[in-house]
């Protein structure tokens, strides 16, 4: 059994009298006043709690043998056998240690993704619910980047918001959809303004881009008067795109007066950050002597090469321009190299640049620039350009569909008519004449002399002589189908069979 220690004295006073003063030097050798037990009379009638007996002092990291024997039997090694026992008492005489800080409760995540947990009820959220969650999460943070992303999301959402086609019975529905779109744009531009006022460069640039494209402006008109100062602010903060756009504004007088030297300053500032658009513009200016510069082809080619090395889907122009330079060459600056030119065109076409894709389509159709005649590659590159509404590429597909290519493209008059109409609607005069002819003869569509005449007139107004001659003829007498188009394997008027695509047909 543990021995009961004497109660701790509560005072150095004896019999209520203070001790006599002693010389402090008496304590130098460890001598302290004699401590005697003193019992304080009770101050209250309530019983005092019994003092907890103290255990003898032991090593800081060892338990007393009695406690060790009673609570932790030595007959087994299983740590989890006695989990129901209470924790051991504190060891008396043990020096006080500062308790370890309790683990902090982790803050809730800024972005709540609990709705994305897999399960039987997992489903994509509606557009409105996604916007609500994004808005709630954006309000939880003061991070300008997250708030900027939310503003960009709202602008994108406003563009993708479906607006029903106006009919007689859904006027209110259309007005509600338009009002909802305006509310999204208003909320986004308001958030962007606050961020721009705090000096956030991406917000300054994006808000300026919105104004330049008629988003968040009066009657959705371009407002360069508000966009240009924001471009300047973002450019001063080192935003390369903003510096490039500020240069284009100074060059064209958008939101400011025309100032070529100032435009050059902004272009050079952006080019220092390897902006491909700025480097391309400087290259063209050096080649052609624009923006107040003298013609220096060698310097211009250097800028074009730098831009081509950093070409993107938005700025692939340097690749196309370099290809054209290597196709014709520049004395003592650029040598003619068809193979390298075709390679540059292919790089630009893979980035989706329509003029390069159309040029390659011509090369593989006619065997130009050292390219072999390959219908599959020709149609492939024409299709890349046509998907971007390149009118010449659309009309080139019309010719391919008229005759087809065995194993590559099936012949289809309907597709030929549709591609010709797309090119005509884009303003290509020879495509207008072709559409008029298709409607007159009935190729790929039902004959319609009235609409055919309308297309002939439009082509004639653009200077197409064949359309003008057709309008002078008898509109009641349709043209002979075979006199204009020759199919593969058909005989021409001289009895010569056509083995391939007829490039001399009247409509082309």
Automatic annotation (TrEMBL):
Residues 1-20 have a biased composition (Polar residues). Residues 40-54 have a biased composition (Low complexity). Residues 1-117, 472-497 are annotated as: Disordered. Residues 98-109 have a biased composition (Pro residues). InterPro entries: Chitin_Synth_Reg, Sel1-like, TPR-like_helical_dom_sf. PANTHER family: CHITIN SYNTHASE REGULATOR SKT5-RELATED, PROTEIN SKT5-RELATED. This is HCP-like protein. It comes from Jaapia argillacea MUCL 33604.
């Amino acid at each position: 059994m543990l021995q009961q220690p004497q109660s701790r004295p509560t005072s150095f006073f004896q019999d209520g009298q203070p001790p006599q003063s002693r010389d402090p030097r008496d304590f130098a050798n460890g001598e302290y006043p004699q401590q005697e037990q003193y019992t304080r009379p009770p101050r209250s009638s309530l019983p005092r709690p019994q003092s907890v007996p103290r255990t003898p002092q032991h090593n800081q990291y060892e338990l007393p043998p009695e406690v060790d024997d009673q609570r932790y039997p030595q007959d087994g090694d299983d740590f989890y056998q006695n989990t129901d026992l209470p924790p051991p008492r504190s060891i008396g005489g043990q020096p006080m240690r500062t308790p370890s800080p309790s683990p902090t409760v982790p803050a809730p995540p800024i972005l709540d993704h609990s709705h994305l947990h897999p399960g039987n009820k997992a489903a994509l959220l509606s557009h409105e619910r996604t916007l609500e969650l994004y808005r709630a999460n954006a309000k939880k943070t003061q991070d300008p980047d997250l708030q900027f992303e939310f503003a960009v999301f709202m602008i994108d959402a406003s563009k993708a918001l479906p607006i029903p086609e106006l009919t007689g019975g859904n006027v209110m529905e259309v007005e509600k959809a338009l009002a909802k779109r305006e509310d999204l744009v208003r909320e986004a531009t308001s958030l962007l303004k606050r961020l721009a006022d705090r000096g956030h460069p991406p917000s300054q640039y994006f808000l300026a881009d919105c104004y330049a494209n008629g988003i968040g402006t009066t009657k959705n008109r371009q407002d360069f008067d508000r966009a240009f100062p924001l471009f300047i602010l973002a450019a001063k903060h080192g935003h390369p795109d903003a510096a490039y756009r500020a240069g284009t504004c100074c060059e064209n007088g958008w939101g400011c007066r025309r100032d070529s030297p100032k435009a050059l300053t902004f272009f050079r500032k952006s080019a220092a950050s390897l902006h491909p658009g700025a480097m391309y513009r400087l290259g063209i200016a050096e080649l052609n002597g624009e923006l107040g510069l003298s013609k220096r082809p060698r310097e211009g080619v250097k800028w074009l090469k730098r831009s081509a090395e950093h070409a993107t889907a938005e700025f692939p122009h340097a690749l196309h321009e370099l290809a054209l330079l290597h196709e014709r060459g520049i004395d003592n600056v650029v040598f003619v190299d068809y193979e390298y030119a075709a390679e540059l065109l292919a790089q630009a076409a893979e980035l989706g640049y329509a003029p390069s894709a159309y040029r390659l389509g011509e090369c593989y159709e006619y065997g130009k620039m050292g390219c072999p005649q390959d219908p599959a590659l020709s149609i492939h590159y024409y299709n890349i350009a046509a998907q971007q509404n390149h009118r010449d590429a659309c009309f080139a597909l019309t010719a391919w569909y008229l005759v087809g290519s065995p194993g590559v493209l099936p012949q289809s008059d309907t597709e030929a008519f549709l591609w010709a109409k797309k090119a005509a609607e884009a303003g290509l005069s020879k495509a207008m004449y072709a559409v008029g002819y298709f409607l007159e003869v009935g190729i790929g569509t039902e004959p319609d002399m009235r609409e055919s005449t309308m297309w002939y007139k439009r082509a004639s107004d653009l200077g197409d002589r064949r359309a003008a001659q057709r309008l002078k003829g008898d509109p009641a007498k349709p043209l002979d189908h075979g006199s204009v188009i020759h199919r593969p394997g058909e005989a021409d008027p001289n009895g010569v069979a056509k083995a391939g695509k007829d490039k001399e047909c009247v409509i082309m």
